[in-house]
Amino acid sequence: MEELKEKLASSSLTFGILGLIFCGTGLLGLIFSAIGRSKAKKYAAEAGELAGKAKAGKILATIGLVFSIINLVLWAIIIIVCIASPEFRQALMAQYGM
Fold first, then answer.
1. What are the pLDDT digits (tens) for 24-33?
2. In terms of Cα–Cα distance, which of 59, 52, 62, 61 is closest to 9?
3. 33, 23 Cβ separation under 8 angstroms
4. Which H or E run contains 18?
5. CA gap 47, 3 in Å, rounded
6. Do 60 and 36 meet the contact criterion of CB atoms below 8 Å apart?
7. Do 30 and 68 form a contact (C-beta atoms < 8 A)?
8. Nearest-angstrom CA–CA distance, 33 and 42
9. Would you state the torsion angle of the CA atoms of residues 52, 58, 63, 65, taken in this order, to the nearest 10 degrees?
10. Is the dihedral of CA 42, 49, 47, 56 positive or negative?
């Protein structure tokens, strides 16, 4: 039982750190952060409450998740604005000879 809790706490922290590191990529950060939060949730179910590494992992995963979502939203806005821009379309057509 204690070994399982230690593995869940360590993996929660590991995935939380990875989520924070990769939050600039958007999708990878989102995936790692979701896994980190899931591991912390499993730890809480086993132990009754979050503590130590599991708590730190959940905090880092949450921060990574928020930053990943913000990053994805900003990229979506940038892409939409670029596609809707007439200058962008003209430059694209000129580049590809359309």
1. 887 888 888 8
2. 52
3. yes
4. helix 2-21
5. 12
6. yes
7. yes
8. 14
9. 160
10. positive
